[in-house]
Amino acid sequence: MGPDGRVRREARRLTVKIPKGIREGQRLRMAGQGAPGMGGGPNGDLYLHIQFQPHPRFRVEGSDLYHDLHITPWEAVLGASVEVPTLDGGVRMKIPAGSTSGQKLRLSQKGLPGSGSKTPGDLYAVIQIVVPKKISEPEKALWNQLAEMSDFHPRR
Prior knowledge:
This protein is α+β, with helices and mostly antiparallel strands. It folds into two domains: 1-51, no CATH class; 59-149, HSP40/DNAj peptide-binding domain (Sandwich), CATH 2.60.260.20. Helices cover 12% and strands 26% of the residues. The chain has two helices and eight strands; from the N terminus they run E-E-E-E-H-E-E-E-E-H. The model has no long low-confidence stretch (mean pLDDT 90).
C-alpha cells in the first residue's frame, strides 16, 4: 500500500514454477513477493489465482479431461479401433459396436497428472457421430439400400 493507504499497482515480471497436479481455481502463494509492509515492514505475499486457458482438444473438469471423439456412422454401428489423443500422445481405443453419440468411454489415469501421491484423473472420450456432408452417387445408393432393408426405427 502507498502512504495514503491505497493499493499500489506495480508491473514486474516473475518466473513462477507451477507445481505438477495444480488445478484450476487453486491459489499459488509467492512468499515475500507482495507489497511492502506497513511502516517499512517486510514484503507481504503475492497470491496467484490459477486459471487454465481453453485447449483445442480437451475440456477440464477437476482432474478429468474430456475429448469429443468424432467417428463415422459405420464405426458406431460396427465398432472400430481409433486413435485418441492424450497428454502423453495418441493411444488406440476400441469403439464398441452399437455406440451412440454422447456415450463416454474412459481411459483410466490419462487425465491431468496427480500431485504427490494423488492418482491422475481420467480421460473421457465423448463419442460424436459425424455424418458426411457430401456423398457420391454409389454411396447414396448404398445408404438408400440400407434404409429400404433395415427395420430399425428410432422414433417408434
